[in-house]
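Recap for those who missed Tuesday's class. We walked through two folding examples back to back. For each one, the amino acid string is listed first and its predicted structure tokens come directly after. Nothing is annotated here on purpose, so try labeling regions yourself before you check the end of the notes.
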Amino acid sequence: MKSVCVYCGASPGITPEYTSAARQLAATLVKHELRLVYGGGNVGLMGIIADEVLKLGGQVTGVIPKALMDKEVGHIGLTELHIVNNMHERKALMAQLSDAFIAMPGGIGTLEELFEVMTWAQLGFHEKPIGLLNVNGFYDGLLQFLQHTGEQGFLRANHLEILIHDNQTESLLQKLQTYKVVPTTKWVQSSDL
């Protein structure tokens, strides 16, 4: 593992725990000599984690659509910045440049990115580990909902194992580094329940 894609909010959130977790994740990535790949913004948790990785001497690759760069939310001080045409290109390039994925707290965009890479893993399009940094219980409701989805027959039990979660950066990263690919079959059968 050489690079980790981090999905997170373009807002810092309302509690200092989110900012603290972004800085802690940055320190963990730098400690393990992992390159940060992220959405290229200089705002919210995105900007905080990028700035912290750079401050600690790490490498940061950003990927941002031209329309967002033009609105002056692009981070111009990164190790590497890719400016792409649209969000689809952004997500594809971020996935291509990354060996693992971590979702921190964020909004709809963060959830959409997380679910897209989970879907790709479920379909067998990649075998990269996917982590959820559950800061201050932020994702407790989502994890409960995913369990409910499985119980209702819309998600195989082994597909739930695709998403690794922890509330500590170091232990989450360790789980990602020792991840064993979950065998996946897309369709749920009544015998799976």
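Example two. Treat it independently of the first, because the proteins are unrelated.
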Amino acid sequence: MGDWMGVVVAVAIGVPLLLLAVWVDARRRRRMDEELASAPLRGDPRVDALIPGYVTQEAVDALPRPGGSQAPPPGPAHGVRMGFGHLDPDFATDGGVAALTDAAVLMVGDDVETMRELLGPLATATPERPLVIVASAFHPDVLASLKANRRVTHLPVVAVAANPAELMQLQDLVGGEVLSSADLKAGWLPSGAWGRALSWRSDMASTHVVGDHRPKG
């Protein structure tokens, strides 16, 4: 009898304590989530009054593709044809085609693993001087960020993957220099590293390029 009474007392005391611990933990987690979701205070009322907005992936996916419903730009493709195209329909400007004029071309000889590597180059992109980034590959998170920026801000950027031989061929056309991801991480991006495409027209399968490179001799 005494043993059973001990069990009953233990349950009577332990269950409320367990429920209380669960409630306290849930409240703590909810407070932490709210703090993480809110903008940190900077100590300046003018700054703290500016509450940033956050765009979810669902909201990005709900936006229309840039240029996805328009007709392709008129006129035949001209220039040198290359056997690679842009990596996603979101990089198109008109009807599935990315049609750019006077584009800066950034060539990377290995994989782009983080968006940090591209922050400097992306800051140079303008409607008057769009940016083409050609790399061996892009990390899925980087590609997703570039696509989101296309949909939300219409950032004038096209992402392309090319193998080493194709990169060398492109360099012959547009000039510039094939950099490494280590160069980008170190912030080394000299003016002579940029290529220039007078005309760039790509779809998901191929690209036509008119370059501005003048081979020496």
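Answers for example two:
The first strand starts at residue 80 and ends at 82.
The mean pLDDT is 81.
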